[in-house]
Amino acid sequence: MDSDYGVPRELSEVQKKRALYQPELPPCLQGTTVRVEYGDAAIAADPAGAHVISHAFPHTYGQPLAHFLRKTANVPDATVISEHPVVRVGVVFCGRQSPGGHNVIWGLHEAIKAHNPNSKLIGFLGGSDGLLAQKTLEITDEVLSSYKNQGGYDMLGRTKDQIRTTEQVNGAMASCQALKLDALVIIGGVTSNTDAAQLAETFAEAKCATKVVGVPVTLNGDLKNQFVETTVGFDTICKVNSQLISNVCTDALSAEKYYYFIRMMGRKASHVALECALQSHPNMVILGEEVAASKLTIFDITKQICDAVQARAEKDKYHGVVLIPEGLVESIPELYALLQLLLHPESDDSAQLSQIETEKLLAQLVEDEMNRRMVLGHVCYHILAAGLNGYMATVTNLKSPANKWRCGAAPISSMMTVKRWSRGPAATQIGKPAVHMATVDLKGKAFELLRNNSTSFLIDDIYRNPGPLQFEGAGADSKPISLCVEDQDYMGRIKKLQEYLEKVKSIVKPGCSQDVLKAALSAMSSVTETLAIMTSSSTGQGTPL
């Protein structure tokens, strides 16, 4: 064991109180029997790249969705798993640290021990480096005691967030085989889950017994698709940042003579900036996606801010707060091309945008012209109990109370897209399939809500303080505004569709009346024709450029 990891923390009285908090589990995760219903085979999120993805992942592409059911569910063909042999499960932190990582491990440990007390959870120390070097720590109640409901990744630590080369993949497989692991759980974001999918495929090809499961944990909130409504850590980071922004807003309103430029984390995707703006109501927020869509230059953005400052000055307001995402420069071509040459790259070869003090850059330009948790751990056990490989743990219907959350699993390969680059008259598919970050949807309801309120945010000082992070009492059940306003629960709707199809099959059987048969054929013909048109029109869209 490495002396730097797994050491019990010295907790304050508040931390001790928080460590006693027990998160609520949805009914489908309670008890010791695992009930799973398999849906249809999942297709690629990127229809145009489906062939490339299926070719790259022949063993793990096209696997069915999995829905975990509560004890009272009446699903005759559900798979019921009541016998739980001893398992050895490895877990590793990858990527940037994010709130909630320790609770994922706590939930996984709790589920493993509840189903068989002799099973073991083994943590890899120092991220992917520890995985390759077989540096481990057995996770026990004693180790977990001072890390429950606490932030950070320091229980196990993390380093670089990729397992990409042939040598690294083979090294990871060798570690899993040497430690006789039944499953490997990778906790991370888009890059880490892409690596998880590749490991799952390679392990299946080599007939390695270890199953690989991914958990979407990233504070940026950019691992978002039809299967993943939000990521572990996004809610917490937005609440904490929103309170800090609100404190700055209060200071600006009190002094009445300062403009504050606050840089938000998030790289190219501005989800954190958007959510914090909806929660704290700063005077202005610049979103990278909006800048890219409008092809704005740095001087266009500067003019926008200056116009806002002037409009407020005409109302005798000489203070304000502006939010700026750290990845804003990536949306400004003339700056990003230069910065790629000057900055050390990230693990995915993109520019390390967190090194750029964008808020100082914009503040200076404006000045010159005028003189930016637990549940998924349990889901992981259900996934490995069902023997699934290459899946990501999913929890949907998150804007409802916990007892109505839907827990399941989706193949990571179905979340992949293939990057395209414009060369000549048409875009060409280049590179390996990957889980790519999702940017803010400028046609979505969250952005629409921000746009509808942007004028009042700009002129009227309606700053809002959501308060500190709470585990109980007022504000404890508050959820991200951007999550609540969107119409999601994709997994629930897929399941509902399957129920309707089963009803049709039960009604329209050989021997049914001519009228019933004709009505069914007419309805199905109309539906399939409409869906075919919608599918063909969307092919090739939604792919990163």
Automatic annotation (TrEMBL):
The record's annotation in Pfam families points to: PFK (PF00365)
What Gene3D superfamilies does the annotation carry?
3.40.50.450, Phosphofructokinase domain (3.40.50.460)
Q: Which SUPFAM superfamilies match?
A: Phosphofructokinase
Keywords associated with the record: Cytoplasm, Glycolysis, Kinase, Magnesium, Metal-binding, Transferase
Task: Kindly state one GO CC term assigned in the UniProt record.
Answer: cytosol
Could you state a single Gene Ontology molecular function term? diphosphate-fructose-6-phosphate 1-phosphotransferase activity
Q: Where is the Phosphofructokinase domain?
A: 88-379
Q: Which GO terms describe its biological process?
A: photosynthesis; response to glucose
Classify the source by domain of life: Eukaryota
Identification of the protein by name: Phosphofructokinase domain-containing protein
Which organism is this entry from? Oryza rufipogon (Brownbeard rice)
Organism phylogeny: Eukaryota, Viridiplantae, Streptophyta, Embryophyta, Tracheophyta
